[in-house]
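Deviation from plan, reported transparently: glycine complex.
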Amino acid sequence: MRVLVIGSGGREHALLLGLTADPGVDDLHVAPGNAGTRSIATNHPVDVASSDAVVALAREIGADLVVVGPEVPLVLGVADALREAGIATFGPSAAAARIEGSKAFAKDVMAAAGVRTAHSEIVDNPAHLDAALDRFGPTWVVKDDGLAAGKGVVVSADRAAARAHAADLLEAGHPVLLESFLDGPEVSLFCLVDGTDVVPLLPAQDHKRVGDGDQGPNTGGMGAYTPLPWLPEAMVQRIVDDVVEPVAREMSSRGCPFSGLLYAGLAIGADGPAVVEFNCRFGDPETQAVLALLESPLGEALDATATGRLAELGPLRWREGSAVTVVVAAENYPGTPRTGDTITGADVDGVLHAGTKVDADGSVVSSGGRVLAVVGVGDDLAAARAQAYDRVAGIRLAGSHHRTDIGLAALEGRITIP
Ligand code: GLY
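Because the crystal trials were delayed, the predicted structure below was used instead.
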């Protein structure tokens, strides 16, 4: 099978690595890719927000399957264009991608499906902001009602900080979503979804704040681990039964069935799981850890989802043990990152590229905020952490930073469900 992956991050590098391990996949392409994907796939410098350009590339290389990684092309309808061209595609239609692209749509689907989530209000008029803030908090949760790559979210007990973020969004013309704060540890559960059929992957936990101890601003994700030793074994099935399947059924009945990867971000509280957000694609950096433990052929699973045969797939098989991803970020991330710095030590097992490119002189340089995603695998969480941090220690990138506590709270038994 010839597979084309769309995207350029650590998630896409992880998808490509997973696909290389599938004997049914014999030719790999990526658009646009990064400096790390070159060694396992052919990189194509294509504008992935352009449906015409992606369809033309898929035709030119004769792709049997296209896997769309990021949310932006999905929300713009790239998967629709590929399907209309008769190409098997992993990723939802633009109508179904609204589950991530419009928080208001997601809330409406969840209300109709009876799925627990935070109470929310949309504010689109600055004159209504203060009264709305008074109906929430503390803690305030302020989101951009659109795509913001995690960085559009401010969670703060400081009303002035919450207000300032909301005011900035409104000034930029973005409606603001205020939400009640959900208590309890967070879980990312990724599910392959094909209409009303659902196959869960391993549960993972992201670390969204930039600094150790969950300090500092939100990011796209600074690290992750899987599985979750503190999560009761029956919880994954409960999330599938109470959250993912009802949402999938509701979307099908609205005429926008979901096909692809539905990412449920949940808080596990005293009353069970409640949805923090849905995403319409694999999460980053959880995917790098989750796929490191996958034993089933990845291409077969993605192809079964894309071609409406997920019900025939059966449960996925996983390696015993744990996996940890540590993100190495550029100086000043999540602010405007410093780029163009030479990276050394990144050409080793477990080091996945995200914001990297090849410079004119052939050296590998940083080109984005999250530069590398470094993965360790081991028989337990301690061993996986040790391997990931050993690998991080071998990387040189001027000004870079990473969290030193990925998976640590879980390892030390400090995560409890209220
Ligand atoms: N892990 C956060 C995200 O993928 O949005």
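The chain has four domains: 2-93, 119-179, 186-312, 322-411. We consider this an acceptable substitute for the interim report.
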